[in-house]
Target: 4-phosphoerythronate dehydrogenase (FAD-dependent)
Amino acid sequence: MTKPVPADVVSRIQAVLGAGGWSQDPDVLAPHLVEWRGRWRGETPLLVTPRTTAEVAAVVGICAAEGVAITPQGGNTGLVAGQIPHGEILLSTQKLKAVRDVDPLDDAMVLEAGVTLYEAHQQAAKVGRRFTVGVASEGSCTIGGLISTNAGGTAVLRYGMMREQVLGIEAVLPNGEIWNGLKRLRKDNTGYDLKQLLIGAEGTLGIVTAASLKLHAPLASRAVAIVGLASPADAIQLLARAKDETGGAVEAFELMSLLGFALTVRNVPGLRDPLPSEHPWYVLIEIASGEPGAAEAALERLLAKALEDGLIADAAVAQTETQEKQFWHIREGHSAGQKPEGAVWKHDVSVPVSKIPAFIERADAALEQAFPGVRIIAFGHVGDGNVHYDVLKPVGGDDDAHDAQRQAGAKIVHDITASFSGSISAEHGLGAMKTAEALTYKDPIEVAALRAIRQAIDPQRIMNPRVLF
Amino acid sequence: MTKPVPADVVSRIQAVLGAGGWSQDPDVLAPHLVEWRGRWRGETPLLVTPRTTAEVAAVVGICAAEGVAITPQGGNTGLVAGQIPHGEILLSTQKLKAVRDVDPLDDAMVLEAGVTLYEAHQQAAKVGRRFTVGVASEGSCTIGGLISTNAGGTAVLRYGMMREQVLGIEAVLPNGEIWNGLKRLRKDNTGYDLKQLLIGAEGTLGIVTAASLKLHAPLASRAVAIVGLASPADAIQLLARAKDETGGAVEAFELMSLLGFALTVRNVPGLRDPLPSEHPWYVLIEIASGEPGAAEAALERLLAKALEDGLIADAAVAQTETQEKQFWHIREGHSAGQKPEGAVWKHDVSVPVSKIPAFIERADAALEQAFPGVRIIAFGHVGDGNVHYDVLKPVGGDDDAHDAQRQAGAKIVHDITASFSGSISAEHGLGAMKTAEALTYKDPIEVAALRAIRQAIDPQRIMNPRVLF
Model:
């Protein structure tokens, strides 16, 4: 627990923000103090909801002068307890909602931190452009949070992480100064790229208040298929072929194991298996191209050749937009699909793409040995090497007993991940949940450098002090 | 000038490296001590040419212990005097030549710092992949230098800068420790992304010894045209249409003014104007697609519609690969083409794409007023907002007189660049040449943060001490 915030600091901040800029009402605070799955709960002496960058700076300035800690919060969709305060001032960016500019000639839009991802997609669409980051929580998650956690999602394979979508940042630094780095340049080699540090910093180096983001051109053709195949190794080969065949126009490539696929089709209302028989593994593949008809043609060529060569066992190509959505719903329904099965350990790991088959094989074997009967659901963005590796309790097993083994299971999965030079947090970040564990895997030379940087930018460690190193 | 290096430090480094690892022979040193255009010359008490990362670490370790400064050098193709020592130890990475791995399943290759860009392209091609960074000095420039200067080039529009091609870095930090950050992950959210700091740091935060780089799929179709049109504003509209028409498959979009175009066609042997009459402005456009035939089709559609609408005046589509190369040669021959015209001021600026027409108009007018008769050649990667804005002496003018006004001219161009929120060094970096000037344009809040970071990583300021802030 962070040291108590002095009462006069609270009242000074209240005075600066005025009515509507803060709250201590338990009903207002409640949704901000609990992680959305209910796994973490926190507390704060004061929720502040600044409406402008200047108000953010005023709050941070007071806190900096008094050495008072702040937890920043975006859409509160984080999964690793980075956004839940434990006694700090809670600064929500949700009222920073201005759309400052959307310019299709620059292929850039400038949005404030509290704009949701869904709204960002809409703003881009209004000018005939796309914003390419896609995550399931798009209705709640916000630009500030997406940047501060370097969000991933299903489109990383083609477009990269959130990091690669950011042209510029405006942020309030830990000393309360406003850094206006809101450039919209594609090229600017005039010193270290400061914004890269704030991206993925989980609020520890300042509070992102606005960003200049890349827009992309619309695509004229799109084709989606569900493929049944024998193994992750075959899936990796199919991915390489798909890139070759389409010149990198693979929009998504999602691997699913039979168990997750079957549970989702069974448990999520309205879904059905598009293939007539079961397969050990499935891939959802989406091709998208700027050329009319090209995506469909490339997907047909790819699948026909793969069937002929025996690389895949079966495939269904979506014939309508409704069917495309159905296919995607199977992939996106994986969390809902396994929910009725009870307690589960989730892991968000990445390894080099070529190591995915070996990783799954080794992790499956180690878990089966340590925890006989557990049911493993491997799925995820295999084109990025990102496996969401979920471990369900044995059939008929006890939820609490399974929950009690969560750390032991994670250690096995993460040790194997590390043995493949992988990451124990591919896209969710470290927050307060994974920081200690990450330290056991990170290169100490790197950690020393990261700590030195944090110390240089936030010498009092007032910004989200409980997260990262 | 940096303080003299003690003789015992020199001899200790010599002992560690052994024969073949260092030189004080003036003939060996000579090409390392002069910038390739002859604009800067330097000196060093010792050239070291380590053959392994461990040898780099040994040299840096000795220097760190004694507070002795180092200038790192890659292929010595830099344009801003970042690689020329002034009394420091000169550390060349040219002997770090190993190709550690090239893996098409991971779409990654791990190359040491001294591998040239040309060799990198060849390594990628061997496994049926592409490495997408392209700059004119590809035969000399090296991976370490490309990373340390965050190189740009003609393919940034579609693929991004060097920064976006780097998956991981191995580097010797200023304390002499080896940081092994050679991951090949597409997703890794476990703390600040340290490699981003070293990219573009111009050797001030450590010496990049190897890197893990992204590979891209080959493209099945390609089409190149030279277009004649009336204005930069029309060119920007054409770019927007090209992105729309091709779904972002624009591989290059290079603007050229009549003067530069005509001088190049006239002065470079073997070139001829592909269009029957002159136009105020030209664009070289290249479309490339993963779908066979798609690039040609999209380019034809784009140009036909643009001609019909009067957006462009004329266009020639390359019919053969030889003709494609000819078209590109006109663009790449711009420096050679203007050389016979005598003294020139060069500027490497960027502005938001939509501001290019206004930038050119305002800069042209200001220069004509301040220096009547100067001849302006604007060209460059307009899809990135990157204008290479060259100013030739007046016809019959005196070279020395023009050279003497270089700074005054730069001030005008850079002030106007800054008024459009642009960058005074889009892709060449700051080196020792532009650092002081950059300080007059950079946000002091940002500069303070960058200095704090440098101080944190290199408290003795021994790494390339004369460059950056």
